[in-house]
Amino acid sequence: MKVSHVSEADHDIVTAAVAAAEKHTNGEIVTVIAGQSNDYDDVALVWASVIAFIAMSVVALFPEFYRNLYDQITGGWGHEITANEWLGTVIAIGVLKWIGVWLILLWRPLRLALTPRAIKAGRVRARAIDLFKVGTEAKTMGRTGILLYLSLREHRADIVADEAIAAKVAPEVWGDAMAALIEQVRAGRPGEGMAEAVKQMGVVLAEHFPRGSENPNELPDRLIEL
């Protein structure tokens, strides 16, 4: 069963915004919304490895503390730990720490929270480009397709434009549209945010690619959910 990230009302708002924007331009706007762009499994592995390394380093740097702790636990009746046993203990602690952290980070919200913002932004951008290549790039006669992509859990969005648009419109021009979108998403109104971004994108597209006498609707207006 497919999980819906937004309401039917949000779908209607975004679809209507795309249709309205495209009345004034030959540009073709595609809107896509996803719950999350990446699982960040590699981030969990890095965190687990870093914590395990730190734990092993601490034990290795302060051996007397842990030897005294061992004596307290055994009441002084334990045998003298050999160098090999001590090495094995350090490795065992590292392995247990690694497994423990990895199990904790199976909880995706925590894994996402511990992922640096730059990594999240890069993964969202990469996903947007992949989707653009599959569904938007070179799908219009004038190479005037443009993708608006929103990834909800990362609170990140991106715009990827086809060749003709990219040649005339610098990426920073879409800054206002992105700001309006993210502001609404943080307020819990993703549909309204995407609609406002589409409206502002339409203004820019109408300036550089005004509607011609023949303007077939080459790409879907509906909001696509992943």
Brief rundown of the structure:
With 226 residues, the chain is of the alpha/beta class. The chain contains 9 helices and 4 strands.
What does this structure look like?
- With about 230 residues, the chain is an alpha/beta fold.
- The chain has 2 domains: about 10-40 and about 115-225, Diaminopimelate Epimerase, Chain A, domain 1, CATH 3.10.310.50; about 40-115, no CATH class.
- About 60% of the residues lie in helices and about 10% in strands.
- The chain has a 4-stranded mixed beta sheet, sandwiched between helices.
- Strand 2 and strand 3 (about 155-160) form a beta hairpin.
- Helix 1 packs parallel to helix 9 and helix 8 (about 175-185) packs antiparallel against helix 9.
- It is elongated and about 90 Å long.
- The two termini are about 10 Å apart.
Give the tally of β-strands.
Answer: 4
Distance between the termini: 12 Å
CATH class of the largest domain: Alpha Beta
Rounded mean pLDDT is 86
List the strand order in the largest sheet: 3-2-1-4
CATH hierarchy: architecture of the largest domain: Roll
Largest sheet: 4 strands, mixed
Instruction: Specify the overall morphology.
Output: elongated
Helix content: 55-70%
CATH fold category name of the largest domain: Diaminopimelate Epimerase, Chain A, domain 1
Task: Enumerate how many helices there are, as a single number.
Answer: 9
